[in-house]
Amino acid sequence: MNFLWEAMLQAKRQGIPKSDIRFRAASNYSAYMEVSEPCLNQNKVEKGSVIEVNPYYRFYEIFKDMLHPDMTEFPQLRENLTNLIFHQLAENDQLSGMTREEYHKKLLYRDFEQGVFGKKAKEAMQLFQKEEQEILLSGLLRQYETGSSLDLFTDIIKGLISNHIVYHSNQNSYEILIYVGQKKGKTIVEKLNFLIHMFAEVTYDIEIYYEYHFGILGMEETMVIDEITMC
Question: pTM for the full model?
Fold first, then answer.
């Protein structure tokens, strides 16, 4: 990690909140690196750790007076201000490097965190890993742009639910059957209910089958006794 934004992004990947990261002006640092870590190739952030930063690498004009060697008054205040300023600079770095989509996803995730979509949606979002949340948020942005569709719904299911098959009935265009090859449990049920609520149009009748596939006439592999669900 050579830059502020790299340290903050790594903390985010590890699920470490910003409030658990503290920045400090490094007393010993390289003139060619911004972040001064004990190990040159360190790529992990420890929770509650203090990250030392070379304040003059990019921000000389900001810190030249506040951190001047002759400035000895109010050391604790200057240390706290330095931490706050580095946090803001890291935030600025991340925003300046964001695409428009990433910025909108960040705002959308904040809405979930603040309960804009309701308490159940807020809780359901936490059932997904960070990479899965990215898929969810990208799907929601796509839905806002193009509207709801069966293709989008099946794409989201494909990206987030392992070992599944989605069937669209030939007899009833509004009937969808979903087979999930895992045992029915609280987490998987809540995940699927959330995805259906967020991405499926209300006109669809969706049935979910867990662990055992339903029998389909003409497909012998689905007609194994004790391994099928009747529907």
Answer: 0.57
